TrEMBL record:
Listed name of the protein: Methionine aminopeptidase
Any one biological process term the GO annotation gives: proteolysis
GO cellular component: cytosol
Metal-binding listed as a keyword: yes
Quaternary structure and partners: Monomer.
Described purpose of this protein according to its UniProt entry: Removes the N-terminal methionine from nascent proteins. The N-terminal methionine is often cleaved when the second residue in the primary sequence is small and uncharged (Met-Ala-, Cys, Gly, Pro, Ser, Thr, or Val). Requires deformylation of the N(alpha)-formylated initiator methionine before it can be hydrolyzed.
UniProt-listed InterPro entries: Creatinase/aminopeptidase-like (IPR036005), Pept_M24 (IPR000994), Pept_M24_MAP (IPR001714), Pept_M24A_MAP1 (IPR002467)
Protein family (similarity comment): Belongs to the peptidase M24A family. Methionine aminopeptidase type 1 subfamily.
Gene Ontology molecular function, alphabetical: initiator methionyl aminopeptidase activity; metal ion binding; metalloaminopeptidase activity
Binding site residues for substrate: H93, H191
Native species: Rhizobium leucaenae
Domain annotation Peptidase M24: ranges: 28-255
Binding positions for a divalent metal cation 2 per the UniProt entry: D121, H184, E217, E248
């Protein structure tokens, strides 16, 4: 039994009920998410061969501080960085360090800012220098998977419609969908109900209702979908060491479909790739 609750009256913890937000919350989320999107835009000019991911992480922290926001990941369950930087076969939750990026790498940068109590969560893939066509194709497939999942969002549909759209496309392109991680409710909490699976059937999952806010963040592998978490307790990698990619948007369900809160103000939602035709 799925329970829905007006967000204004909900307790400040994840109870399993799905929060329904009103216009003021949507306005707050627009501000937080656009700050995150602006940071990700700025990073397009910073990412490159020889740049350590710690430099990226320091920029994320300072950009947030300069704009009155705090990185949600910093000190979250013991995590000590302001972003996640996941390179090549790292699926998600890669920890920034002093190792430089190399020409041909692909890196996902995941940023969440807390601004006035609202969480703006988004991630993008960045090519580092010249990348192989197989890597470029993976980025293209992953981004298209995200956008197809978003296109399935509308009141009355079920969360499974998002997963079905993503899975059907990615697998038709001979890629695999990671099942160990998923999207999630977000808003006044960093991680909330419901879970948004990136695979499944359109008839499954909770019904989408106006006012819901959540992330869609498919992780797509060139190889098999299986992952493992390293000894640091955070870094998830592909078991077969195949390349992995992820794009993430935060969306809110509207009366007619959805609003993407984290769209790039500079048109850099897929930095380093040719504009979509």
């Amino acid at each position: 039994m799925v329970n829905y609750i007006e967000a204004a009256t909900a307790p400040s913890k994840n109870t399993g009920a799905i929060r329904l937000y009103g216009p003021d919350a949507f306005a707050g989320m627009r501000r937080a998410c656009q700050l995150t999107a602006r940071c990700l835009d700025e990073l397009a000019a910073i990412v490159g061969p020889g740049v350590p991911t710690d430099v990226i992480d320091r920029f994320v922290f300072e950009f947030g501080m300069d704009h009155g926001a705090y990185p949600a990941t910093l000190n979250y369950r013991g995590y000590m960085k302001s972003s996640c930087t996941s390179i090549n076969h790292v699926v998600c939750h890669g920890i920034p360090n002093d190792k430089p990026l190399r020409d041909g790498d692909i890196v996902n940068i995941d940023v969440t800012y807390v601004l006035d109590g609202w969480h703006g969560d988004s991630s993008r893939m960045y090519p580092v220098g010249e990348i192989k066509r197989s890597a470029e194709r993976l980025l293209e497939v992953t981004y298209e998977s995200l956008m197809r999942g978003i296109a399935a969002v509308r009141p009355g549909a079920r969360t499974g419609a998002i997963g079905e759209a993503i899975q059907a496309y990615a697998e038709a392109e001979r890629c695999s969908v990671v099942r160990d991680f998923c999207g999630h409710g977000v808003g006044s909490l960093f991680h909330d109900s419901p879970n948004i699976l990136h695979y499944g059937r359109a008839s499954e999952g909770p019904e989408l209702r106006e006012g819901m806010i959540f992330t869609i963040e498919p992780m797509i592998n060139l190889g098999r979908p299986h992952v493992k978490v390293l000894g640091d307790g955070w870094t998830a990698v592909t078991r077969d060491r195949s390349l992995s990619a992820q794009y993430e948007h935060t969306v809110g369900v509207t009366a007619t479909g959805c609003e993407i809160f984290t769209l790039s103000p500079g048109g850099l939602d897929r930095p380093g790739l040719p504009p979509q035709g």
